[in-house]
Amino acid sequence: MGGEREEYEYYWEDFSPGWSVCSAPRTLTKEEILAFANEFDPQPFHIDEEAARDTLLGGLAASGWHSCSIMMKMMCETYLLNSASMGSPGIDETRWLKPVRPGDRLAMKCTCIEARISASRPEMGICKMHWEMINQHNEPVMTMTGTQLFKTRRSSSS
Q: How far apart are CA 105 and CA 84, in angstroms?
């Protein structure tokens, strides 16, 4: 992404159903949670530890939108920046399953669940992906399903 390159590691042909990849883990800090929430989601359970204790979340937790942003960064670092990505028409579903807490060590797993060539643009492949964010206890804290578009290797070599 960014500029046109001749070669990428991943093209549409590399994403067959069942293909999967895992990101490196990262630990989320209290400071990151507070900074993101103060700017983008200033609800009490995201910005005030004391107030958060008396909520459904039972303590300070990252905004779901913060979790989505972290997942996007993990996608980029793990495979997207080294792919012939053409973007995405959107996300079909996002689920926040468990609160993400300060100190949680998070990792992402991406699995291709469908892959086909575009009927109207044969130089483009369409992949339905499922992403899962896991914490240090191997518990899923978030899932997403959506579509990503990739150039085909054939179209890039012509």
A: 29
